[in-house]
């Protein structure tokens, strides 16, 4: 349901008390920032819906995981960062890239595997990387980003910088060994890092309660004497305030674990019909939709009208249409560049050959005369 329609229907069914204009809550967020959050949430929602469609049109290859239902967390969290901070995410990353200021067209072009994409078309949906905005990716291995982010925090500390690292991961990632190793070393060495656990209730089809002996995931920080908090991930202002507190701690050498609780509106990836979810669970998720809920909140606060809600939605739709046009017009990368970005510096090794080229000379055939052939197991 579009946010304006959702706002209307929510108001139609609300009580007269709820319809009364509510004062701004106890938050550091200004009216302009609140509207900025809403705009960004709508843009991410429309982008992700369009990405799902592009996948069914076979424009997008490989895997594709969406931030649908996590828009409030993405907007609040990303607004709390300084430009010089570093961001690591898992494979569910499109919204973070957009919120970091990367043009939606470049994000869509990466999904399309085109040369104007964030990773020049070689990364795809899960592997975006942009040094200019310190967006460090995009990792398909669950937890793969966690030690790398911790290492980045160590580098900052070693050089005496004031930047911080934000390392985003899912709830399921807190059961990966590298999560615990990383938190332990970050606490021991007072590293400037905030670990953010996006608790969407599921790791693929497995619930948090089924997979985590302590389902209140922020409590895991206690094992490392690390500060932590759990916050409503459907409320961008609560996420923003909590993330600012966490980042202030991290910058003063106190790493932090922030858990945000929200829902994943669709399947794990675009090809997952989420049949493990009951109708009631799906309906509850829809009722808590953070985009529609925030539209109602800002409307009640007098910051949005039905007209401005429709305008913001139209703006987001045209930004996404432009992104699709940009992606469609971008050329496919040339196959000769396939290995160009595998290493940071040029490495003249055999694996840089094109697919299909043999790495080593063919072994001699039995009985063939070949004095120079290497015999495996030959005496040295
Ligand atoms: C090391 C590793 N194990 C398993 C997988 C397969 N896998 C991909 S996503 C996923 C679930 C992760 O869930 P969570 O951390 O909660 O992130 P979410 O997808 O909910 O954002 C799994 C098990 C993988 N990619 N890497
Ligand atoms: Mg999850």
Describe this structure in words.
- The protein is an alpha/beta fold and 380 residues long.
- It has a single domain, classed as 3-Layer(aba) Sandwich (Rossmann fold).
- The protein has 13 helices and 7 strands.
- The model is unreliable at 1-20 and 371-380 (pLDDT under 50).
- Heterodimer of an alpha and a beta chain.
- Its EC number is 1.2.4.1.
- Its cofactor is thiamine diphosphate.
- Residues 1-27, 352-380 are annotated as: Disordered.
Radius of gyration: 24 Å
Q: Roughly what fraction of the amino acids lie in strands? A: 5-15%
Distance between the termini: 73 Å
What is the oligomeric state here? single chain
How many beta-strand runs? 7
CATH homology superfamily name: Thiamin diphosphate (ThDP)-binding fold, Pyr/PP domains
Number of helices: 13
| Overall residue-averaged pLDDT value | 89
Q: How many discrete domains?
A: 1
How do the strands of the widest beta sheet line up side by side?
1-2-3-7-6
In CATH, the topology is named: Rossmann fold
Query: Which CATH architecture is right?
Result: 3-Layer(aba) Sandwich
* Ligands: thiamine diphosphate, magnesium ion
* Helix and strand composition category: alpha/beta
Summarize the biggest pleated sheet: 5 strands, parallel
Shape: globular
What order do the SSEs take from the amino end to the carboxyl end, as H and E? HHHHEHHHEHEEEHEHEHHH
